[in-house]
Specification:
mainly alpha, elongated, about 0% strand
């Protein structure tokens, strides 16, 4: 999972970082994604991927960032 820095100079990265830290839905999506990644990594072989969990995380993040990310264009 990429790092999102709420102190970044980049507005989109900053808003994503604030969502990862403060939005309940994004936090829940991160938790589910991390559980999936740990489960997949713990198996010697599995066809399971965390694709759906990653997409759910990105959707929650996009929804959170939505209107805020580009409000203050420089």
């Amino acid at each position: 999972m990429p790092d999102y820095d709420p102190t970044s100079d980049d507005q989109l990265t900053k808003e994503r970082g604030m969502c990862v830290e403060g939005d309940h839905h994004v936090k829940k999506a991160v938790e589910i994604l991390e559980k999936c990644e740990n489960r997949v990594k713990s198996k010697a072989y599995t066809a399971e991927t965390c694709h759906q969990e990653a997409m759910d995380f990105m959707e929650a993040l996009d929804h959170c960032v939505g209107e805020k990310a580009f409000k203050r264009l420089v």
